């Protein structure tokens, strides 16, 4: 149907006849002389229909060209010639195609919006096929495709086995984020869509596959945040007979190779490494964005006897943290701006945000402007300025709360300040975060919860040791972080049944419950399960980072909205009761509160 | 953790120290001299623990070896040496590893079954991890993995874009085989799991992706036959700006390349082609197994005036068929065997199965043995023998019914006879079946149904023509058949909204219903949709064919049973009412009748 792609017509083809297929990007009719920008996925080329003696018998062509409208689907045959007015903006800008035939393959009705408009995301999602036709969306989507291709090629070449695991899996009691699927053949029973193939990939290691990967669809039924989707895609990997170093070295090398191939950039070698403790202390985050040079500075030791009660209380609290963050040049921030930062911090748990402007560092107390200065004695003030390295023109923010809360909101503040003040360095900042706590104490539930997941191995190999030191136990989990995003998370797994039972027990999962939920795993661990570990990478996020977009929706062909809808197809939708009866369910009269 | 794979230890390593990880396949203790067959995915190597003066200090090794049991997970370090009694059955049979260290990584409890037993498929599925460890399962699963890798490599190299489409899609009213998923955020509304990405891939062509593929998970909620799964995997492909020839040439070449790479076999070039009409006439099937040389022979013209009423009735029926099938050497079949064939044919709709043994072809009527011979006059008998080429020692089966039914059961009989009589040729017999009817008349529903699907383009490009000749209309669909299996099916699609509406109308889908179900497609077709077409291949079936197994469960890591259960995890399972309430559904008190 065509001899060339529109976007690849070049000077080497001058004088040749080509047949192109594409959409009319723009059509201009200049009194009998018609120009059509014909577009396919490779780009745009200019087509001309002209009443020239050299192209005799082209009255039909001109008539056809005169009726071309936006997004009409065309087949054009013509002769390539040098273009008089070169268009440097497009690849094909030195040539044009003089049409000898224009075939209208499909007429487009008036469009609901035009490519150069920004009609709002809802309209773009409704007419997704039109939105995806735009060069920018094509570029972003194709970046994702290249990423996945490069990953697969890398993995295939190294003996990783691409194995599909089920989408219709076991519903676990209390699987609060499970999507449920009623089973037609088993009235009252349900499948669940997998939140990840975690247990299946562990089973695959016990089944002798040695090295596994899957570009796996995962599902999480939860209120959507801007950067989440109900269904998302992971590069899921697992290795048998390994320790952390083997897994980390392998996937770090993979990421370097893939970024080199897709983005032509060289990531650090090796990636920096940081413990969870250090990441929280310096950056208030377990996924620090190292492109931002700002760091948190602990000042609890300086304010233990301060008159400022909030500081002193938290400085003396067993689990308290008092921390300062220097905003370079921040002394020029208005009261309104400072309030906005306080509001931002409040979203992450801050009850208040103290601040101190350094208007003239040389003047000591007289040079600072702060509601809390009066509570700080001279020595304390000087010590704080010294500890934070605050200079004339800077501003200090202070957070005081539990360690976790203070870290959270000061970490969030650091990110926002970094962006607002233009302190985010160009480039790519990967790192490993390691040595996570094994457990977190959940105040609400009054029990330990797993910081990674309950299959993560503890650093100690002895159940009694783990039980005795659960509060401070460190896991063999690790996260890969890139530019402040957790792009991968993994661990060495528990491979002995007795240790797995001990961890379930510590997590408050009784023997009977464990057997009901995870009996097949506990069984499998009894038949010679090898030591194993792995990692999973968020493909949507990595693709978005590579494509240079904030929104993962730009790298998903048919995303859902934050209200969990597909605006193009209209999913979800009501279903006749007859169909529900066939799968033995009914809609509840009263929606759950 | 290891220096080499067990199955790859060879003579080049003699004298070297290696560290291996694997499972104890067999362990034999011969009075202080212990042999362990250590197995990983690459194969088995013999490990020896011996009280030899040259390997001093090995009392610990012998003690460890003496306690090794089946499927214990071990790490062994030792020195490779030439083996005295060569074992030609295994790759490593010329060497053995003299252990200097044996580390028990994980003890295996007594196994529920042993690899050499056949405990029945239910037990194998429950302990899938043990079953998958066996060399035969590893070989079959890895064949599938190689197939998918080869397909991807081929497609990636040719610019096909691997694009993921949603798993949570729109529930279509009357989607009788849809899996439903209640929507948490939208009480009373549901998603459906896709039966295929058909509409999404068409939309992707309208969205400018030009060439698409996906190894796509599809779902069909129906009573399971032995060769079906609730979820299955397709290689889904679509091309923009193409006709049949472009699609067929491309994927036929792909299959040849992939079979060459994975199986080292050369498929026919080009594939034979056959219309639907010819396939039904000669083989009684739209997916003929061409490895079987037997063909159906129409004899209606010979029996129109026969005294055998069944023959005469169907021979004179507008939609009747009377057909003979020669079973070479079938004259030796017993009455019991013939009855069994009749029972087989009955499963496919036969009301009876006439037969005729040719005991001596030279003797004419006196040489045949048949309950129906007396109804056939000499000329008819002779004509039938001639038409079918029946020889002394052959048997003829006869079918008479509607064209469809007679074809179905005689086609099924042909397959069974071919296998039973050893008439299935070795090798691979691919072909294209084309020119399918556009519609089939559904007696029960009293309306046309689509033979492929409602998006398949008719051969005629004019709606009025299609409406006028719906009964005989031919579609632009095509199937790829291999050894009697439909391994791929595709078509050129409708790309104009008006034609799509006409086809919906002919299928009894009214304008309003069409808008409700497929409105987004009808919309998309209005904005310059390009001509497009594609195909989908059944990966599970192709993998099973390559692996040489009848059961697709052998090439699926975690399959479900014919009662839709995962015996390993116990899916599906009941769910607490609280969880159902959260997604606004309840279980019906009374299961649907």
Task: Describe, in plain words, how this protein is organized in 3D.
- The structure is a homodimer of 593-residue chains.
- Chain A is of the alpha+beta class and 593 residues long.
- Chain A has 17 helices and 25 strands.
- An eight-stranded mixed beta sheet of chain A has the order 6-10-11-23-22-21-18-12, sandwiched between helices. A five-stranded mixed β-barrel of chain A has the order 1-2-3-5-4.
- In chain A, α4 crosses α16 (539-547), α10 (335-347) packs across α12 (403-420) and α14 (497-506) packs antiparallel against α15 (511-524).
- The interface between A and B is large, with 127 and 127 residues.
- β25 (585-587) of chain A pairs antiparallel with β25 of chain B, so a sheet runs across the interface.
**Overall pLDDT of chain A:** 94
Low-confidence stretches of chain A: none
**Alpha-carbon Rg of chain A, integer:** 30 Å
Helix fraction of chain A? 25-40%
Secondary structure tally: strands of chain A: 25
Termini distance of chain A?
Answer: 58 Å
**Biggest β-sheet of chain A: count, sense, barrel?**
8 strands, mixed
β-strand amount of chain A: 25-35%
CATH superfamily of the domain at 292-424 in chain A: GAD-like domain
Q: Biggest interface, and residues per chain?
A: A-B, 127 and 127 residues
Number of helices of chain A: 17
CATH class of the domain at 292-424 in chain A: Alpha Beta
Write a concise synopsis of the structure shown:
The structure is a homodimer of 593-residue chains. By secondary structure, the first copy, chain A, is an alpha+beta fold. Chain A contains 17 helices and 25 strands.
């Amino acid at each position: 149907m065509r001899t060339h792609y529109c976007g690849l017509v070049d000077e080497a083809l001058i004088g040749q006849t080509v047949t192109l297929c594409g959409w009319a990007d723009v059509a201009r009719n200049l009194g009998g002389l018609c120009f059509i920008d014909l577009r396919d996925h490779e780009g745009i080329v200019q087509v001309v229909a002209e009443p020239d003696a050299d192209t005799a018998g082209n009255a039909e062509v001109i008539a056809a060209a005169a009726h071309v409208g936006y997004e009409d689907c065309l087949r054009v045959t013509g002769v390539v010639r040098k273009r008089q007015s070169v268009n440097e903006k497009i690849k094909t800008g030195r040539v044009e195609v003089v049409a000898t035939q224009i075939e209208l393959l499909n007429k487009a009705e008036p469009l609901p919006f035009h490519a150069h408009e920004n009609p709002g995301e809802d309209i773009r999602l409704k007419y997704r096929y039109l939105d995806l036709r735009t060069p920018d969306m094509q570029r972003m989507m194709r970046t994702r495709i290249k990423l996945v291709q490069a990953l697969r090629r890398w993995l295939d070449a190294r003996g990783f086995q691409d194995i599909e695991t089920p989408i219709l899996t076991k519903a676990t009691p209390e699987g609060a984020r499970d999507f449920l699927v009623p089973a037609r053949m088993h009235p009252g029973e349900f499948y669940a869509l997998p939140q990840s193939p975690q247990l299946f990939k562990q089973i695959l290691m016990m089944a002798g596959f040695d090295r596994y990967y899957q570009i796996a669809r995962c599902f999480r039924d939860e209120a959507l945040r801007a950067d989440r989707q109900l269904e998302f895609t992971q590069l899921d990997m697992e290795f048998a007979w390994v320790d952390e170093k083997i897994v980390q070295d392998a996937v770090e090398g993979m990421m370097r190779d893939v970024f080199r191939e897709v983005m032509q950039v060289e990531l650090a070698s090796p990636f920096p490494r940081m413990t969870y403790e250090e990441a929280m202390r310096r950056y208030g985050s377990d996924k620090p964005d190292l492109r931002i040079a700002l760091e948190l500075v602990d000042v609890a030791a300086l304010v233990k006897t301060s008159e400022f009660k909030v500081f002193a209380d938290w400085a003396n609290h067993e689990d308290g943290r008092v921390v300062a963050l220097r905003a370079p040049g921040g002394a020029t921030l208005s009261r309104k701006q400072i309030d906005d930062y306080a509001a931002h911090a409040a979203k992450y748990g801050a009850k208040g945000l103290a601040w101190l402007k350094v208007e003239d560092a040389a003047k000591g107390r007289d040079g600072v402007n702060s509601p809390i200065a009066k509570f700080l004695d001279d020595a304390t003030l000087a010590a704080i300025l010294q500890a934070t390295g605050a200079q004339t023109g800077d501003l200090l923010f202070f957070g005081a709360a539990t360690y976790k809360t203070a870290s959270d909101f000061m970490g969030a503040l650091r990110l926002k300040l970094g962006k607002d003040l233009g302190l985010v360095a160009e480039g790519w900042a990967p790192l490993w975060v390691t040595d996570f706590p094994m457990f977190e104490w959940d105040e609400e539930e009054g029990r330990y919860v797993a910081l990674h997941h309950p299959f993560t191995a503890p650093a100690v190999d002895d159940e009694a040791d783990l039980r005795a030191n659960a509060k401070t136990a460190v896991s063999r989990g690790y996260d890969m972080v890139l530019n402040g995003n957790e792009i991968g998370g993994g661990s060495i797994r528990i491979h002995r049944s007795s240790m797995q039972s001990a961890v379930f027990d510590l997590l408050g999962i009784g023997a009977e419950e464990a057997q009901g939920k995870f009996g097949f795993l506990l069984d499998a661990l009894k038949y010679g399960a090898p030591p194993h570990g792995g990692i999973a990478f968020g493909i949507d996020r990595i693709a978005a980072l590579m494509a240079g977009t904030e929104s993962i929706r730009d790298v998903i062909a048919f995303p859902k909205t934050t209200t969990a809808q597909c605006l193009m197809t209209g999913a979800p939708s009501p279903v006749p009761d007859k169909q529900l009866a066939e799968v033995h369910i009914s809609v509840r009269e009263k929606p759950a509160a």
